[in-house]
Amino acid sequence: MTARDLAGWAAALATLAALALAPVYLDAYGLGLMIGIAGYVTLATAWALFSGPTRYVSLATVAFFGIGAYTVAVLSETLPYPLVLLVAALIGLVVALVVGLSTLRLAGVYFVIFTFGLAELIRQLVTWYEVNVTGTLGRYIFLDLGSEDIYWQLLALGATTILLAWWIGRSRIGLALRVIGDDEVVAAHCGIDIARVKLALFAASAVIITLVGAIQAPRWTYVEPAIVFNPTISFLTLIMALLGGANRLWGPLLGAVPLFLLFEWLSANFPNHYSIILGLLFIAIVFVLPKGIVAFAEKQWKGKSAEAAP
Amino acid sequence: MLEVANLCLHYGQHLALDSISVRAAKGETIVILGANGAGKSSLLKAVAGMVSPDAGSSVALDGKQLLGRPAHEVVEVGIALVPEGRGIFGDLTVEENLLLGAYAPRARGEETRRRAFVYELFPKLAQRRGQYANTMSGGEQQMVAIGRALMSNPDFLMLDEPSLGLAPVVVTELFATLRRVQQTGVGLVIVEQNVKVSLGIADRGYLMEAGRIVGENSAQALLEDEAVQRAFLGKNSEMQNR
Q: Is residue B173 part of a domain?
């Protein structure tokens, strides 16, 4: 480990410690913002974990997010909390494996449509079940968890996700992932078991997303399918990752933080035009920064240093 | 010994390969010659596990049946393919391309040794190890592709039209390199339209036409064969532009 690596680790740990102390010096509103940011940073990083390198654009984010939240809503009275999280993660894993095995052969736009449909399907199934079997639509979550507990859990999950993304980027799988999106045929000729790599990544990403939903659920107190399976969550995650750059480790984080703050401000100040502005932003990002902020900054930086060099 | 026997392949209704039988002994170089559409690439794809041939076909390496295995397992058994059009990753450096080639379990733990071997074979690649592959010339990219395939420590290296799109002088250099690969004991299966230069390094050759093997002989005999000369070497003025 070089001195530079060491300094990087020290800086990361110090930042994490400072973030962990946020509940001490922030008011309730500030902490609420931090929870939202930590949630979306984790969602966007987990989304990019799979979709960045493979270029499979997934709109299933909210399917897994909702599964996590609903599992907590259903089980929080019967099981101890840590066990509820574990069950949620397991359900997310099983759904991801089934969905992955059946759909990762779909290419391009078909995969996008399928994942969008999947989220709707699960929402309708849950609604149907609740109306016809349990006879209730909507559930209350009474868990003795404060905002700071939720925040700390999300912070830990987010840090773990970034660490996982960093580790994968350096590993043999990371190298394989970088080329699968380029040319699957040649990748197979390198001896890469493409189906397995994609499935493993999809499952890891889905489990993390499920956990974000599960951890955030107690904040709503009242949960119903329309809330936790809201497709906007999928779109926001997608656009945050794309804005920052889905192929860079810090890209999703750098996209999620400013966009979350911007959305928060917009929904507070322009509640009626919020969706219109959101749509325009999506279009602008795709046109102006197709590869994300990080890649754009790298290009600017390289261009400048190339000019300075000769 | 790589042995293809009674290989038949349909693309829908179309019969692309008709009872193909081809073999290559360990360390042997064979060339498969034929015009566009003769089925040469389909043959390589079938061996590499990219398409599934009809029942009753057989592709075996040292008695081990390869049919039905996916592409990444064929690599593991010891057959590497350099696909048509290079098959490298432009956004990766030379060295990263090579490391990817050692992804198969059979090459793991041997990366350093294999890399040294490839750099010895292609000193030019050693000088350019940090360069992005898409900034290299066609001939250099082909070297990266061959080096990448060699990283998996194959018994047989299959090359699909390696000379395609390269300048004549580069082609000569490329085949000189392949000669050095031969000397390391790797068997070569080359699919080519460039008859002269490929027969020049081969032990034996096969002629393919409309999905069938229509001729087989030693490379020397094929070079002197009148039918081959007429069909591929442009001795007949009508065929000059083939």
A: no
Which range marks the domain in which residue B145 is found? 88-153
With respect to residue B181, please indicate whether it lies within any of the assigned structural domains.
no
Residue A119 belongs to domain spanning: 3-308
Q: Which residues, 6 or more positions from B78, have their beta carbon under 8 angstroms from its beta carbon?
A: B61, B106, B153, B154, B155, B156
Long-range contacts of B215-221 (CB under 8 A, 24+ apart): B219/B31
- Do B144 and B162 lie in a common domain? no
Residue B1 lies in a domain: yes
Q: In this structure, what CATH number is given to the domain that contains residue A268? A: 1.10.3470
Lowest mean pLDDT among A32-41, A46-55, A173-182: A173-182
Give the total number of structural domains in chain B: 2
What pLDDT score was predicted for residue A1?
64
CA distance B235 to A95: 65
| Chain B interface residues (partner A, CB cutoff 8 A) | 48-50, 70-72, 75-76, 80-81, 83, 87-92, 96, 99-101, 103-107, 148-149, 152
DSSP A242-292: HHH-TTSSSHHHHHHHHHHHHHHHHHHH-TTTHHHHHHHHHHHHHHH-TT-
Q: Which chain B residues are Cβ-neighbours of A194 within 8 angstroms?
A: 72
Most A-contacting residue of B50, B86, B89 (CB-CB within 10 A), to test interface: B89
Phi/psi at B60 (nearest 5 deg)? -130, 140
Cα maximum dimension of chain A: 74
Please count the structural domains in chain A.
1
CA distance A102 to chain B (A): 18
pLDDT above 80 for A306: no
Intervals of chain B under pLDDT 50? 236-242
B84 neighbors B161 (Cβ within 8 angstroms): yes
Regarding whether B3 and B64 lie in a shared domain, the answer is yes
Residue B27 falls inside a structural domain: yes
> If you count DSSP H runs as helices and E runs as strands, how many of each does chain A have, helices first?
15, 2
In angstroms, the CA B74 to CA B72 distance is: 5
| Contact (CB, 8 A) for A243 and A255 | yes
Contact A189 B76 (CB under 8 A): no
Greater confidence (A118 vs A297) lies with A118
Angle at B142 between CA B32 and CA B86, to 5 degrees: 75
- What was the pLDDT predicted at A226? 87
Q: Residues B208, B109: one domain? A: no
Which pTM was predicted? Answer: 0.80
